[in-house]
Amino acid sequence: QEHKAAKSKEGGSYDIALLDTEKGIVTRFPPEPSGYLHIGHAKAALLNDYFAHEKYQGTLLCRFDDTNPSKEKEEFQDAIVEDLGLMGIKPDRTSYTSDYFEELYQYCVKMLKEGKAYADDTEQQTMRDERMDGIASRRRDATVEENIAHFEAMKAGSKEGVKWCIRAKISVDNPNKAMRDPVIYRCNPTSHHRTGDKWKIYPTYDFCCPIVDSMEGVTHALRTLEYRDRNPQYEWMLEALNLRKVHIWDFARMNFMRTLLSKRKLTKFVDQGIVWGWDDPRFPTIRGIRRRGMTVEALREFILKQGPSRNVVNLDWTLFWATNKRYIDPVAPRHTAILNENAVTATVKGARVAAYTENKPKHGKNPDIGTKKVAYSPSILIAQVDAQGFSEDEEITLMNWGNAFVRNISYSLNPLKRTVTGLELELHLQGDVKKTKQKITWLSIEGQELIPVELVDFDYLITKDKLEENDNVDDFLTKETEFRSSAMGDCNVAELRADDIIQFERLGYFRVDRSFQHGKPAVLFNIPTGKAGK
Ligand code: ATP
Ligand code: MG
Ligand code: MG
């Protein structure tokens, strides 16, 4: 429910034309189960959900567009259902285009019999050229009997059948090329993940989408703008078959800088091992961005806030992560980690010799988050970068403890790279924490078990802001996209579980990808906050 509240404060406002006679609207999300959902699909899914469930009291359908057995798999279908659930989207009904293969076949036969479609075996490139040039296929005027015979051969998946396809007989030279006799059925003897070997013919999206929309009672078909040229074709199919009309509502595709949003291209990344899998934190899949630390509430808010604008924009990830930060900052527990590289051991004069612990709030501004243990002793760890900034006798603040003077800094002998190798601190607890320049994090070496952690940051996979359709992706791959550093975390880090989102003070926000177990370091992914370069 939080996401609704957030959205009505921030959200864009959308509307679609409703007829007086329409009681409830019916929308549908039609994914092809040929990959995992990405953030572009999330926009389509969330908009359909918004109209069906938030703006109006309607019905949301999820229909798997499973008409290409060469690309589709059950694994993808299950993942899509799960990912919709993760986004808080609950379709009222789930169906499959393959549920309608019999009806679609009958509709195609009807079109053939009424002379509204014909069988064609024109070679692919020639067909493309003829369509470009507005030239009629030599098969365009075949008789109904011939066409039906070819369709039956296709249906049987025979050697002859696979050479043919069925085309709607709309126009040879309509200025809108989408109207130039589009293909509506293909022969493909590949086994289908739901219908097995029953069918050797598969309807194209152009054919089955309007028909099944109409049959399932869809009132409003939301389509991305690239389909605009195909809208008249969608309407033609319904008219040709005398089926109930459906309103089409266009919306803009969502694109992101330095990001591929195409299942086909993402599949290549997975297959080539450029990423760990579909849930890689560098991937724009729902799983990937969740693994990177995006919250569902922020995702919904960000997408619905884009508004109904029809401009296709190339969005910047920084905006997206800035939205997320507003959701995680008030609730992320705060912990301490000190980077291992040249970490400095400091002696604290004036500290009680026997180590002890105190309970401190996990979040300074939100007592609901609970408390954590902070250990104190005369021996503490501080980060090299902090020690580098100290000058002799300066007063600094040890966060969660108090002020101290810096004494006796010792440096390594290498004059080119002056590393701090040790120092002393003299507690000055009556000092004013508001007056110090340096407020540093630290960890007591005694009185607690320090937990090894691995901190991972990532870069974009792609070097170019906006890839063009004919750019070769391989020319724009970022060489190094994964950056690891090891650190020690406070004792409370041992209790963190996978998926927890926390803040390591002064280092940033992190999502726990693997918890600390069997002595193996906890692995945490840095969550971008929308600051420049992140
Ligand atoms: P892809 O090229 O990534 O495979 P697609 O459109 O072929 O995308 P589908 O599974 O057919 O994938 O898409 C399901 C729905 O998601 C469609 O309504 C489609 O228009 C929409 N969609 C896909 N990509 C985007 C995007 N970048 N922005 C908005 N909507 C999108
Ligand atoms: Mg598609
Ligand atoms: Mg596609």
From TrEMBL:
Shown residues in whole-protein numbering: 182 to 715 of 715
Record carries keyword Calcium: no
Glutamyl/glutaminyl-tRNA synthetase class Ib catalytic domain boundaries: 25-329
Localization annotation: Cytoplasm
Domain tRNA synthetases class I (E and Q) anti-codon binding: 439-513
Reaction(s) this enzyme catalyzes, per UniProt: tRNA(Glu) + L-glutamate + ATP = L-glutamyl-tRNA(Glu) + AMP + diphosphate
BP-aspect Gene Ontology terms: glutamyl-tRNA aminoacylation
EC assignment: 6.1.1.17
Protein name per its UniProtKB record: glutamate--tRNA ligase
EC top class, as a word: ligase
Key words of the record: Aminoacyl-tRNA synthetase, ATP-binding, Cytoplasm, Ligase, Nucleotide-binding, Phosphoprotein, Protein biosynthesis
GO MF annotation list: ATP binding; glutamate-tRNA ligase activity
Similarity comment: family membership: Belongs to the class-I aminoacyl-tRNA synthetase family. Glutamate--tRNA ligase type 2 subfamily.
